[in-house]
């Protein structure tokens, strides 16, 4: 990577506004995420965290402002948008695996269909990824035969199969039974340590403290605080953040 390429932020949002009808959901968001950074997004329900994530791969269009991924403006549609989506991996609260395909088939699908990768090569890569997330032995099962934690790890492997430049996680552990939360966080912590750029919406404060380089606190569609986890947890500046922490800690 040249110095200029390294200096280009992975995500750059400038003056982004988003409305749902009369509801102003994102208000003049300016956000830069440098390459390799792990950003945890905190905030009360309805503050716009999911919408923020969804605008970054254009699952939601924006009404004003600009978003760039690795220096490229978000394409509106077509092949260019499909390429962009391939570079921005997304993991949701609901795993969204294809129920009638096996785990390894789920992981192979997008590389074969979107990237035109040969099936045997896609299978090899998929098996390596399943190994990495610790579920290679579940490869030939169907999603319903796996635990929630295993399904979410499969969903992470599926996102990684497209070799994304950045990974977005929207409450990836919120739908899991408590005993399965840690195995998913462990996979995410490893990814972070390997240098993946990550934007993570979560209520897991242990993960925020341990893995985040930076914490963003949102309220009512605005970024209210943008600081280190140490500062945020020790001394949140805004009343809304103090109130939020008081409720969850
Ligand atoms: P969070 O993820 O922080 O809970 P969201 O981004 O999901 O917040 O939602 C922000 C606001 O936008 C909420 O008031 C929510 O009800 C509203 N909202 C989200 N998605 C839609 C939609 N598709 N249509 C209308 N309103 C929506
Ligand atoms: Mg949400």
TrEMBL record:
Protein's cellular compartments: Cell membrane
Keywords: Amino-acid transport, ATP-binding, Cell membrane, Membrane, Nucleotide-binding, Transport
CDD domains for this protein: ABC_HisP_GlnQ
Pfam families on file: ABC_tran
Annotated ranges, domain ABC transporter: 11-245
Gene3D superfamilies documented for this protein: P-loop containing nucleotide triphosphate hydrolases
Stated family: Belongs to the ABC transporter superfamily.
Protein's name in the database: Amino acid ABC transporter ATP-binding protein, PAAT family
Originating species: Streptoalloteichus tenebrarius (strain ATCC 17920 / DSM 40477 / JCM 4838 / CBS 697.72 / NBRC 16177 / NCIMB 11028 / NRRL B-12390 / A12253. 1 / ISP 5477)
